[in-house]
Amino acid sequence: MKPVPYSPFMMARPQHLIEFVNQVKLVEEWTAAVTELNEKMERIQMGERIDDPDLEQKLRENNPHCQKGKEIPLKMQSFLTNYAVEQTKEYVAQAKLEIMNDAMLQRKVPPTQELPYCKAEKISILYDYLDAMPGFKNFDELIIDHAPELVSICAPLWEGISLLPGETRVDAMGRYLVALLTDVDTKISQSPYVYLSAACYWRIVGEASEAYQCARAALQAAANFKSELEPYAVLTLGNLMLMAKRDEEAVILLDLAAHDAQAMGADHHSLSTIAFGVLGDAYAISANLSMAVKSYGKALEKAQTAQLQNIDPEIWAKKQGTLICTQTIQDELQHQESNIRSIIDNKHAYNDLVEKVDRLEKEVRKHVTSDEKLLQHYLRYDQAKFGVSKLRKCTTRVIGKRKLEEIHCRITDPSTYDSTFSELRNGKTNQKHKKKNVTEWKTAEVWRRERSFDKNLAPFVGMEIDEAPMSKKYPLEKSTLTKLSMDRYWRRADWPNTYDCTKGMIAEEDLFHKNSIRPYFISPDNKGFIVADLLTKYLGLEISEEHPLPWDEPKCGDYQFHEGLMLRDFKVLIEAWNEPIVYAEPELRSIFVRLADKRLELMDVAQRIRTLIEKKIGPKWIALNLAALYYRVIGKPQEAARCVLVAAMEGPKFADVAFSQLAQIVVRVTGSAEASIDIMKIAADFGADEPLYHYLLGRFNVIAYRVDEGIASLKEALDRDPSFTAARDDLLQLVCKGKTSTVGVRDLFPNVCCSSLIQNAVCIRPPKSPERCYEVDEESRKLVYVRCNGVYTGVSYKTHPIVSLVSPFLTVFPKGSRRDIIRYHVDVGRVHTVEHEELPLDYGGPSSFFVKHDEWWKRATPKIQWKKPEAEEKVNWVETVEYQQPEIPPRPLSFLWIKDKKEMLRYDIKLPEVLPRPLASQVRAGLQVFPPPRTATQMCSGVTKLSTLIEAPVPTWVSVTAKGEDLEKYIDIRTPVPSVANLVPECPTPKKEKYSPILSLDHLPIGPLADQFLFYKPEKGLTEALKSLGNDRESIDHVAAKLHHAIKFSQATSEMNGEGGDVHWLLTLVSSLYWRVVGDAPKAIACLRHSLQNAPPHMRDVALVALSNVCHQAGLLHSALVTAGMAFEQSPQLAAIHVTIANIYASIGDYEKALEFYYSTLSLQNNFEPAKARIRAIYCHSGQTFNFQN
């Protein structure tokens, strides 16, 4: 016999000829589809090899044009360059002869207040078509920046001018131009040279409309005098339009000037050179890169022979290099895009072919015999060809209704078997196999294995094991506990905080329902025993062998009821026998079938446990507990309970294993958590070191609504194993929900409203006494009797002693912050002075909260001294801060001359040298949360434009409640208040004696410009945050009235206490939120500056973030970044500050730093979608590449 290799023509029904013919067609179609699939894969791989994500970076590093132009970024500002006709030597020489000659310089020109205005008449007929241009029609709308660089360019004409005292060169230039423009000689007053010089003057001072008038007048004068200065005037007009960002008009004028100057010959060679250079700038700004490159080329060619001054032609070469580099990168990226489109198309086709190949393969395999049958054919062939082998076990079995016998073979070691018999099949061995007697090998295969199992099992029968071969898993060593959790966070006094509850909770479930407890099993491995050895080695079985048939369930025997168990509902366990589906615990199946360190059949493991019990092998309590685990899996709680009870009697030292199972069975069947708690307490002495024991006890307590006991047990579980994630998650969810089984004093005696005058009272019924109501006396600060909705009797009553006892816990008294506790100084022996903070008893906690005294403390005599400032004592201080004074607006800001929010930066401070940056680890963590998106055209088509997101930054507000401040101490949030007209929170100015210019940020322009924030709009996104300060249905007007009353009350309280009538900083801080919502920037800033003056240092970040938002909205981006950076220094782990700084950087245009802070935001709050949206927009629309490897 020879083995036949696998073939798709091994038909399941070889007798059917039609199926065979159809199979031939299917195989041909399948083969063709596979061939096409491989071709598609080759094309995809070839395209992926061509695709280079770092192509742009390589071009910028290696392309000579990119290297030459790397100093010139592709931004509009790089191509906005001021030029003047005075940069040509020919013009300067002729102008000195015409107007600025010695006679003019010797003339005494008196000082004047007039300015050199030009009056332009109708333009020359040759250029009358220019009047149709939008820039010419609306020349009064042109805006340009100051051009101080033109002072040195126009200087050669005015070198001989003598300056008056206190006069600048520009002022002198204007004074002489006024004299020239008003000269009686029209050859002087209407000279094109004078007009062009006047145009240069107005460009220096930044008045576009006046510069236009003078340049236009120069063009008319040149036409009237028939001079050759018309191209010079046109060049001046073109450069003016370019600086005013009117690129279309600039291109037309500069192209006209360049060609006119070129046509005029060599005398005007320098003019045509400059004109072509400026024309290149205009083409670049209008995005016509090819024409810009040509214009720069002509300028560079002419510059070799031109007589230029104050111009370096190399700048044109660098600009040309930048544009050529950009064109090259665009072309290459277009090729890359085409390649990516081809890859995508091929992958779509590949996916379709995969589906086709899979479908055809299924059709082919549908007619082929099964893999199991093929394997049996091979094994039967090997059995008949090569004889019996230890690697192959064959038996006979009866199949079908006709009771036919069939040989069924099984491989014990697949890897060894394949390597051994593949050589035999291929004839690579000289061993000759004798033909076996059929009857002989069948008989050996059926009976030999059973006899060998009994023989291997015999040495272990009756072997009892009392001592564990290994050490216990618990308790863990101290070094291991320290490594798992150094700070034991669940024992912290401030755990959990808001961050823990929002960041740590994975999912919410009803912990008070019995079905919320996942089934568990305390493994005997924890006690030092090895269950896998008991189920394999002690049964004489290898890990790859099965237990011989037949397989049956384990039997645990009879048991005697243990009276101490107090199973009040044990009858339900007996009645649950017939409902295995209801009480089955399939979650334990995966644990049970892997008890032997390998996945086995369920009944195979059950038979092994039965053999352990019957043959008395190993600790009986382990086998009985494993048997109970089996019955829990299949849903027989009665048998499971029988097994664990016997196991508890057989192994009392390890009763926690049995009773933890029994408690879970009871609560699952009866629903009685109380009974389960009683069962767990029996094993308290044995399971003290097991974290799972304490976890189950805690969960049973929670189900029984003993929440405090449950929390304590869950913490005990974490004390023993900090890596116990189930205990950690359940404890965090339980504590964050805030449910407790203890009713507090403030809950027993809530505040009541007796009348419109007495709105804050408390009613208490002492034992054996009638209920009476009390309010706080303002003078004595004690509770006094008050009549509340009762009949007037004219009698007053003394305060009951129990009322005085519980008064510290009542909510009618205002509570102070822990940071407001008075500090005192202790003078010990006049040598050492230690400053303490008083801690009330309810703030007790770990020893780290208290001062560790030195040895000298024990020998010293304590003496308390209260240190009070003297009345006449004055505190003087000096504060300094370095900054650059921002530009002061010459007139009130107006939309008439401020068209864009970016122009507000002109009046903002300069950015500091050191800018805020997040930690590199935070950026890396954010990158793991949200990797950089791909920037293919298809993927970016639906992403919001970057400009839209920048114009609408997300308003941020740091909740003071999240930082530990209680608003209800200062604002009556719950009591409804009618909205009264004009009741708004007015914030006072800071007191002079407390005023600090640095805390008020006087070095920023926010104060002087607060009433001129043209672009500040109401921050409607904060409306819900503001309305949360009131009841659900109250409007912002109601909240404003509450804040108004709170401020007035704070002022009155401060005056009565002799504190000067100042307002608490928290009220002015919250009031700023109202003014931000309604859009009143001056009042919002006033409130924030007051809050900054009076807030404690650790709370100033809240006001700084709010102030940064206001500056950001108003366009003062530098001030916004400075204030947000100050907040960042105080609270570097606050997500709101990170996203605020990221939004500011994005508005400034520094996208790399913006991305860093967006990623750090995601590291702190990974579900913050606005940060992800802005990351996508920056990658898709900024046109930049970013590298965060460092």
TrEMBL record:
GO terms for biological process: actin filament polymerization. The keyword Ribonucleoprotein does not apply. TPR repeats lie at residues 1135-1168. Gene3D superfamilies: Tetratricopeptide repeat domain. The keyword Cytoplasm does not apply. Signal peptide: none annotated. One of its GO terms (cellular component) is cytoplasm. Keywords: Coiled coil, TPR repeat. InterPro entries: TPR-like_helical_dom_sf, TPR_rpt, TTC17. SUPFAM superfamilies: TPR-like. Residues 343-370 form a coiled coil. This is Tetratricopeptide repeat protein 17.
